[in-house]
Amino acid sequence: MTTESLTQSQPATSHRQVSPTRLKILQVAAGLFAARGFSGVGVNEIGEATGLGRGALYYHISSKEDLLYDITTAYMSDLIAEGQSILESESDPTLRTQKLSRALMMAISEHLSEMTVCFRELHALTDERRRAVMSLHSDYQAIWSRSLSDGMAKGTFRPIPSTVLKGLLGMYFYSFLWLDPRGPQNAADIGDAFAEVVLRAVRA
Amino acid sequence: MTTESLTQSQPATSHRQVSPTRLKILQVAAGLFAARGFSGVGVNEIGEATGLGRGALYYHISSKEDLLYDITTAYMSDLIAEGQSILESESDPTLRTQKLSRALMMAISEHLSEMTVCFRELHALTDERRRAVMSLHSDYQAIWSRSLSDGMAKGTFRPIPSTVLKGLLGMYFYSFLWLDPRGPQNAADIGDAFAEVVLRAVRA
DNA sequence: GCAAACTTGTACCGATCGGTCTGTACAAAA
DNA sequence: TTTTGTACAGACCGATCGGTACAAGTTTGC
C-alpha cells in the first residue's frame, strides 16, 4: 500500500519514477533518518547501508534533501488517500472514526521509520518543501475534520475546538516514540483504543 | 520556574553551576536546536547567535551534546517537580487532572523551544544519556499514572491501558508542532480543553 | 559483434564539522 | 609590582560534509 505511491508511474505529479534501487535507498534512508535525524546521517552512511558508492547513490537520487522530501510526501499521500477513501465509503460517524483510527495506527506501525521521519524531521526541509509537506498534514487533518463535522450534522457528535482535533491527532502522531510493532498489543488494538478516546471526546 | 533547576547551586546532582553567560548559551542553543535540529546546528552558529567566539563558547560548555543534555534534563526535571507537587497537594482526581493538564500545557507554551528539544531531539543523545532522559519521561508518565490509579481507587475513574495514557500524553507532547504561544487561544484554555478530553476518556 | 544506454566506484571539490590551542585583556589578590 | 584567575578571540586540527567529474564496467537493442 505504501509502495503504491512510490512505484506507480507518475505523469502529472512531481514524483519521479522509482527503480528498485531507488526504492531500496528510500527505505534505508528512512531507517537512518529515523534513528539519527536527517542532519545526523551522512550520504556516505546511506551509501554504505545500501551497498552503493557515492557515485552510484547520486545516480539514483538528486540530493539528500530529495530523499527526505520523497519519503514524507509519499507516505503522507498514502495516508490521505486511504483517509479519503474511508471518508467516502463509510457514512456512519462512529464506524468511520474507528476505521480512520485503525488505518492511521496501522500505517504508523507498519512504516514506523518513514512515519517518524514524516512527523519529526519536517524542520530539515527547505522553506518551500516544508510548506508543501505541512500542507499535506493539513489535508489529512481536514479529512478528520470533515468526518467529525458530518457526525455533528447528524447529531452524533458535538462541536470541538480545532485545537482539540490537533491534540487528538497528536495522540497518534506522537506514538512513533513509544510504539513497538513487535509489542504485545498490535496496532489494530491500539487504534481501537484510541478510537474510543476520540469518540468519548466528541460524542454529543 | 524553569530557570530554577538551571540556576540553583547543585551540590549533589550532576548539574554544574550556571553563570549568566552559560544560561544565555543554553537558551540560544535551545532556540536553534528547535528550529533546525541538533545535528543541523553547528557550534559556530551557536557562537554567532550568542556573540561569542569558539574559544569563549567552549570556556562555558564542555561539549555540544552537553548543551542538549542539560536543556532536556533541566526542563524535564521542572515538569516532574511541578507534577509531583500537584499530585501531593490536590487529592480530588478531577481537579488534579485539570491542574496537571494546565501545568503541562503552560510549561510547553512558555518554553516552547526547550520542550521541542525535549520531545523531538532525544535521538541525538548518546546511549547512556538518552536512557537517562527517557527515564525522566517515564517518571513524568508515572505521575499521571499514579494520579489516574488513585482516581480509579476512589471510583471516579475507570482503568485504561497504558498505551492510552501514552497516547493522551502524546496529545500534549506533540503540540510543540502547532502551538503558537501568541495565538488566540492561550495555553491555559488549551490545557483545560485537553483535560476535558482526558476526563472523558477515563471517567467511569 | 558493436554501439548506445545504464550503473557503478573512485578521486576529488570547497566548505564546514566539533573541538583544541595559544595568546591576551583585565580585574582582584598578594 | 607581580601573580593569579576569569573571560574571551581567533587560528588551527583532522575528519567529514554534500555534491560532482569521469572513467570503467555491465546490460541492452540491433
TrEMBL record, chains A, B:
InterPro entries per UniProt: Homeodomain-like_sf, HTH-type_TetR-like_transc_reg, HTH_TetR, KstR2_TetR_C, Tet_transcr_reg_TetR-rel_C_sf
Pfam families reported in the protein's UniProt record: TetR_C_24, TetR_N
Sequence ranges assigned to domain HTH tetR-type in this UniProt record: 19-79
A Gene Ontology molecular function term of the record: DNA-binding transcription factor activity
Keywords: DNA-binding, Repressor, Transcription, Transcription regulation
Highest rank taxon of the organism: Bacteria
Residue ranges of the annotated DNA-binding region, renumbered to this chain: 42-61
Protein's name according to its UniProt entry: TetR family transcriptional regulator
